[in-house]
Amino acid sequence: MGVTMDITTLAKDVTLFLTPFLPYLLKAGEKAAEEAGKKLGGDAWERAKTLWGKLRPKVEAKPAAQEAVADAAAAPQDEDAQATLRLQLKKLLAEDEELAREIGQQWTAAQAAGVTISASGDRAVAAQNITGSTIVTGDRNTVQRGKYNIKIDKASGLAIGDGARVERAGNDAEQ
Q: CA-CA distances (angstroms) from residue 38 to 3, 45, 48, 69?
């Protein structure tokens, strides 16, 4: 169970990490793709290239995995595409113990270098630490607690509170 769970978790984590980079990784070497990939995060881009470098030959050798990568690259937010890619990565890692070990080591090093927090899907929430707070997802919610009382019908790029910021791709911030 330990090895299976490790491979399952590794496939999930690597899928969530790589998916936003896939459109750029598939065009790696092209200057525009390199620049766009770097905007997603310099260190993260380098780690994504390293992980993809190990996975790519195995993916290219398996048509189902190739299709899963192409679908995820075409629609990185599509949960079905992510699930298919996760399954294909899980199969590749389960079939090749050496690959699983190498990817596991690279993933551990990537995590040690910085915190990776991922949220996927509609109304997903991701945070490193939350204390004394209530997380509410959905539409047309009313939140009334503390200094800021708000009613939210729909929101995007929302920042509430003293010094609150919304980080966007390219490291632009809204206050």
A: 33, 6, 10, 20
Residues 99 and 154 both lie in one domain: no
Q: Which two tokens stand for residue 28?
A: 């790696």
Domain range for 162: 141-174
> In 59-68, which positions are buried (b, 16+ CB within 10 angstroms) versus exposed (e)?
beeeeebeeb
Angle between helices 79-95 and 42-60 (to 10 degrees): 60
What parts of the chain have a pLDDT lower than 70? 1-5, 28-42, 112-136, 138, 140-164, 166-175
Residue 62 located in a structural domain: yes
CA 87 from centroid of its chain's CA atoms: 16
What would the two tokens of residue 129 be? 């630490």
pLDDT digits (tens, 9 = 90+) for 114-136: 645 555 566 666 554 555 566 66
Tell me, yes or no, whether 135 lies in a domain: no
Does residue 138 contact residue 9 with C-beta atoms inside 8 Å?
no
Query: Of 113, 129, 161, which closes a domain?
Result: 113
163, part of any domain: yes
pLDDT (0 to 100) of residue 92: 96
11 in any annotated domain: yes
